[in-house]
Amino acid sequence: MWEDGNQSSLGEFILLGVSDWPQFELLLFVLILISYTMTLLGNTTIILVSSLDPHLHTPMYFFLSNLSFLDLCYTTSVGPQMLLNFRSTHKSISWAGCVAQLYIALSLGSTECLMLAIMAYDRYASICQPLRYTAIMSHRFCLQLAATAWLCSFGNSMLHTIRTMRLPRCGRNQIDSLFCEVPALLKLACVDTSANEAEVLASSVIILLVPLGFILMSYGYIGAAVLKISSAKGRIKAFNTCASHLAVVLLFYGTAISMYLQPPSSYSQHRGKIVSLFYTMVTPMLNPIIYTLRNKEVHGALQRKVLGRSPTTQWAQTLKLWLVAAL
């Protein structure tokens, strides 16, 4: 149903990646391998610790576990393919593989946009409405928020994947990108893509700008509440925490906005390749460090549930060394 006749005869796409900069392929391979490994280790640790320690069975860590899980899936949807192509002379991906990568990466990226906004609301409720927090963020409401983010994102991405992959490409199969992504695929079309571009723009406003505005508003209220803290040390600590959260949020949204809130016709391949690395590989690596691994509650849980059980095991020692390096 989705196949373009010309594309089905070829059976694959060629991901050009940085083939025009071959001197950078080894460097990018090493950097992405390190980033991917840290993402797997950090996010897996958060999921395990949050599920094992009863002290972390709270709305905040429920959403953080969701974020860690989708970051694991997000980076895995593109990272291994990138690594393979960097060390291969034939940088191809099957048509079905490209469809799957496009849909999964787009869905998970959209889910992260909504999840970050939900997490900002949770922090707002916790800090600005402390007496009503447990009533506001009930277990049922948390499940409804998370389910809405996942279902809306996967449904919206299905529409864009179908519309993008059905465009005729007149035999073109060389994607000038690191992975299958909407702007790069629209550039291959040999027909007018104005309708597709309008749909991408409308979705980007809803998925990117609206949640970002909500996050900034939530942190504005949080900042006003922090200013009322009598202890100077407490204010500085709270502002440092908020600043680190906002830095990662702005890195993720800023790079995604620069990619999707522009017409694909003006899409810059070279800039797009670098920008895409930030929201697919860098922020998923930073999220567990910024949001969780700097948290004393998580340090205590790690000590109790992981490191404290068998501190002489190789796995525990490796994890401890990684945490020391990360923190």
Low-confidence stretches: 1-9, 310-314
- The topology string of helices and strands comes to HEHHEHHHEHHHHHH
- CATH architecture label: Up-down Bundle
- So what's the overall shape? globular
Mean pLDDT: 83
End-to-end span in angstroms? 50 Å
Number of helices: 12
Kindly state the percentage of residues in helix. Answer: over 70%
- Which topology does CATH recognise? Rhopdopsin 7-helix transmembrane proteins
CATH class: Mainly Alpha
Q: Within the largest sheet, what's the order of strands?
A: 2-1-3
* Category from helices, strands and their pairing: mainly alpha
Strand content: under 5%
Counted beta strands? 3
Strand count, sense and barrel status of the largest sheet are: 3 strands, mixed
Query: How many distinct domains?
Result: 1
Radius of gyration using CA atoms only: 21 Å
Transmembrane segments: 26-49, 61-80, 100-121, 141-159, 201-227, 239-262, 274-293
GO molecular function: G protein-coupled receptor activity; olfactory receptor activity
Domain G-protein coupled receptors family 1 profile: 42-291
Keywords: Cell membrane, G-protein coupled receptor, Membrane, Olfaction, Receptor, Sensory transduction, Transducer, Transmembrane, Transmembrane helix
